[in-house]
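User: Structure please.
Assistant: Input sequence and predicted structure:
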Amino acid sequence: MRRRTQTSWQGRMRQRKGALAEQQAILALKAKGVAIPEPIATPIRILGTKKDNRNQVWHRIAYGQKVSGDVKGILPVQIGAEKIGIGVLAETKSPPDKLSITDFRKHQLPGLMEHHNAYGIALIVWVSDYGLFTLRYPLPPQYFRKGKPLTIEAANELEWNGDWQHHPGF
């Protein structure tokens, strides 16, 4: 029987914490007025299947193409008499007390920037030990850049209020 290593246990805990953070992010986005917030599934391929001696089925998987964020939705907006919807893309992170650029994988911030550049609303939902913060991306460089992590105090200042025109710090 194969023994589980500490790193695999830590990986499972990290995945569980990330899944809980995504559920909290969905509730936070609903509270900000985002309609139909739903998680974006990571595509996988099943490479093989086997049964162990306890009759449990195990699947070997490979992750497919990287996704642009964790949660997507639509922000309903009224401009004059016209009602439209603006696409919302959110990336969820859950470091305890500081949010650093190194907390993101290399494709995540460019994916948020691409969404922002296409006139969508790009958000970072930070589930910290001190609260949940919904932050509009890009964040101002005086608060968040390489070598300068975002603090709880700065996150409080930059909290997005749910208005499509509201971009704190700019």
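The mean pLDDT is 88.
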